[in-house]
Amino acid sequence: MLTLNLGIRAHDLGQLSLAELCKQLKDYQFTNIQFAIKKSFPKYVPSLQSLSPGIASFFGDYFANNGIKISTLGCYVNISSRDLAVRKEALESFKTHIQLARDFRASLVGTETGSVGEGFTPENFTEEAYQIARSSVLELVEYAEHFGVTIGIEAGLNHPLYSAALAKRLVDEVQSPHLKIILDGANLINLDNVSESDFILNEALDLLHEHIAMIHLKDLTVNKGQIEIVPVGKGMLNFEPILAYLKDNRPFLHATLEETQGEAIRPAIDYLKEMYYRL
């Protein structure tokens, strides 16, 4: 029987000891994690220079010995900043994660595209912003090809890569098997299109299909005129299109809970698995 290959962002479980983290992952029957070492174990990496093949192998081997796969090595940095120093630092950090991905036993390193300014700006929706992001992605993909690693780019509404159509454009223009998309359906929903969320999700799945390397699962609702992220199963997002895609088209593709924490985790797992097996 096909099973939902479900994981979670490790830091959504909190800053735990490595042993306790693995215990909780096994208790929840998660098969994989998105792992951002600087978020889960900040004491191990006080600086970028602290990362080494040794520390990467230590974590990669420990998780593997506990039956946990690092599906994505998280390095969410601002690759689109107009500030060249900020962008250079971001690219150097990402390249370090590319270098060490195999030591972590991960094949995918993930990020969003960031912002041309500090925080959100409408300028992120310009062609200039897209071109900056594209330039950075091209540089990272070329670097990743030397290491046999794939980079995963996540689209988000307030970023230069803000739609499924732009994500498809990026993939088409870069033309490399080492570039894939991390699809987070909730990241494509805003107040203007929330009533069409099913269409938005299906369109993204159709456009990106084989280019998707990972699915993020989070939920949303509208509260006081604003989009609010809530635990999976507690909002208004319909997960059937995503779960049907996983079951019928991309079995065992990694799917990762995001922004679902604490006591909300178990109900979210049950909610997703019940729907998955019912489809």
TrEMBL record:
<dbReference type="Pfam" id="PF01261">
    <property type="entry name" value="AP_endonuc_2"/>
</dbReference>
<protein>
    <submittedName>
        <fullName>Sugar phosphate isomerase/epimerase</fullName>
    </submittedName>
</protein>
<keyword id="KW-0413">Isomerase</keyword>
<dbReference type="InterPro" id="IPR050312">
    <property type="entry name" value="IolE/XylAMocC-like"/>
</dbReference>
<dbReference type="InterPro" id="IPR036237">
    <property type="entry name" value="Xyl_isomerase-like_sf"/>
</dbReference>
<dbReference type="InterPro" id="IPR013022">
    <property type="entry name" value="Xyl_isomerase-like_TIM-brl"/>
</dbReference>
<dbReference type="GO" id="GO:0016853">
    <property type="term" value="F:isomerase activity"/>
</dbReference>
<feature type="domain" description="Xylose isomerase-like TIM barrel">
    <location>
        <begin position="24"/>
        <end position="274"/>
    </location>
</feature>
